[in-house]
Amino acid sequence: MIKLLIVIAFITLAVALLRFKVRTPPMGGAGQPPGSSCISITPDPPPSFSFDNLLDAIEWVESRGDADAVGDNGDAVGAYQIHKIYVDDVNRILIKALREPTLYSFDHRYDPEYSRMMVEIYLSHYGTYERLGRAATLEDMARIHNGGPNGWKKPSTEAYWELVKMRMNYERNSSRSHAGDGDTAERTQG
Fold first, then answer.
1. What are the residue ranges of helices labelled H in the chain?
2. What is the CATH number for 77?
3. Most buried of the four, 5, 20, 68, 76, by CB within 10 Å?
4. Is 21 part of any domain?
């Protein structure tokens, strides 16, 4: 029981660190004042997207959120369309980091929470500065999910990123268009 609690705490810490790395741009770059971002701000995609927005968009692109979805001739399943090799890789990552026995089964791919955690672990392992030679972007992360550890540099994953990006933009625009609806109703009633 204690080992399980330690594993859960480690996973939670790893996910929190990943979210911090993805959301936090490098600061004080060459020719910029301290505290300013080195990332050029462009609308493609805006920097206001979070790692959670990315995971939500990946889930939608992969399965429209259907935890029972089956694709790739039965090889990819669940909301994130995870292959067995992806689960094996996540377990290898955790065993190496924690020296624990296998934590995820292939059936966990059908569970929305477990599959999301597997994606977070996979992306936090492969989307690192050490592997990419720079801070990972949301694009890198999406392309790694789609194309494997080196998916961030495969031309075959570019179209996938466009779909994920479109979904993130759609979700943001959709939430903005509905954000004012309640305010208007309250003002007209009061």
1. 2-23, 51-63, 84-98, 112-126, 129-132, 138-147, 158-189
2. 1.10.530.10
3. 76
4. no
